[in-house]
């Protein structure tokens, strides 16, 4: 998997800066470079980035992500893999991924701090996000009080970053088609409370 922004210049210039926190690298880890959208994972991430950008830009219209060229949307985001080691397995257990999140928490936190995202989309990785931040019991209890439920998903303001608990782009959950996932992401960012939280964050940057 490709880790980091494909284009630093596009990522740094983008508003919002979006980081997708994914699970693990396969076929060895290496920094992200421009690549074609040739699999479900990258295509869904590009669709989600496109609709988030369109909604949060008051002068933009939501385009059909199944027809438009999504390369620019993909090139403007960053991906952070929780587990950056390819150990030859096609997938890892939750306990294995949590172990890597804990062992690599300082590096992963530093990586996120360098990227300075406005939005983090946790792709089935919200538990790993909490591990990376190494919250105390009191902090965790406070976070749980501040979690906002929206449809099937949650979001929080964590350290002045809008963090959305979402699904993995390649989820095999029954009925979770690409269109279903796209509409779910669209509904989240059309929600007025989510937009309000985002614009509060943006104003503080």
Highlighted features:
205 residues; alpha/beta; Uracil-DNA Glycosylase, subunit E; eight-stranded mixed β-sheet; 9 helices; 8 strands; 18% strand
Q: What portion of the residues fall into strands of 2 or more residues?
A: 15-25%
What is the name of the CATH topology? Answer: Uracil-DNA Glycosylase, subunit E
Assign the CATH architecture: 3-Layer(aba) Sandwich
Estimated helix fraction: 40-55%
Within the largest sheet, what's the order of strands?
3-1-4-2-5-8-7-6
Shape estimate: globular
**Protein structure class:** alpha/beta
Quick one: biggest sheet?
8 strands, mixed
Number of separate structural domains: 1
Describe this entry's structure for a reader.
The protein has helices spanning 8-13, 40-56, 71-75, 94-103, 105-115, 126-133, 137-146, 178-190, 192-204, and strands spanning 2-5, 18-24, 30-31, 78-83, 119-123, 148-150, 153-157, 162-166. The chain has 9 helices and 8 strands. Helix 2 runs parallel beside helix 8 (178-190) and helix 4 packs parallel to helix 6. Strand 6 (148-150) and strand 7 form a beta hairpin. It starts with a strand and ends with a helix. Strands 3-1-4-2-5-8-7-6 form an 8-stranded mixed β-sheet. The chain has a single domain (2-204), classed as Uracil-DNA Glycosylase, subunit E, CATH 3.40.470.
